[in-house]
Specification:
Length: 195
């Protein structure tokens, strides 16, 4: 059985299994950071496409980055403005980030705190998880837990909601990268940044 209660989902990911849960953008496929290869295998995804680390709170993510005190203050200010929310920040990675998260550019890591009660409740119990959209590589993100359960029968998903309604905005997060001393927008998504 792949459909699980929230508690079973939490226990499952902590035991090293793949899980899926709703977020404020598109549903996530997630694993412990050290189990990131499971995500690439399930999605049939090229390893040159990075995963992101998602957590319930920004304070759980700063150990995964490496920068000066001044840079950290800038990053924390950006997080205070847009997190929880649909902004992914790509920052210099510390040695705490497993290399499998981003083989193409192991010196960076994408980070996000979702603005979704279910995702927050799960992440508060699991700590930071390696995540990506729930879909096979090159296909559109799946929108309901029923679709995810059908596409990924070995992945633990939450028990279906009535009606199989879409889970959130269905738009991906906006991705920004810290380069030198400024932000570069890598992907426009659900959030328009204030300039």
């Amino acid at each position: 059985m792949t459909q699980a209660t929230r508690q079973e989902l939490i226990e499952g990911v902590l035991a090293g299994n793949l899980i899926s849960f709703p977020t404020d953008t598109v549903p996530a496929l997630a694993a412990l950071p050290q189990k990131a290869p499971l995500i690439f295998a399930a999605k049939q995804r090229s390893q040159d496409k990075p995963l992101i680390l998602m957590a319930a709170d920004a304070t759980e993510l700063w150990d995964f980055v490496a920068g000066s005190r001044e840079e950290l203050l800038i990053w924390q200010q950006m997080a205070a403005t847009y997190w929880p929310g649909a902004v992914t920040m790509v920052l210099p990675a510390s040695d705490r980030v497993p290399k499998d998260i981003n083989l193409a550019s192991p010196d960076t890591v994408g980070l996000r705190v979702p603005n979704h009660a279910v995702a927050q409740a799960i992440l508060a119990r699991t700590g930071a998880l390696a995540t990506t959209s729930a879909n096979k590589s090159g296909k559109p993100p799946l929108q309901t837990l029923e679709e995810i359960a059908a596409e990924f029968p070995h992945v633990l998903t939450l028990l279906p909601t009535l009606g199989g309604e879409p889970l959130a905005s269905a738009m991906p997060s906006t991705v920004i990268k810290w380069i030198g001393n400024n932000w570069q927008i890598l992907r426009l998504g659900a959030v328009t940044l204030k300039t």
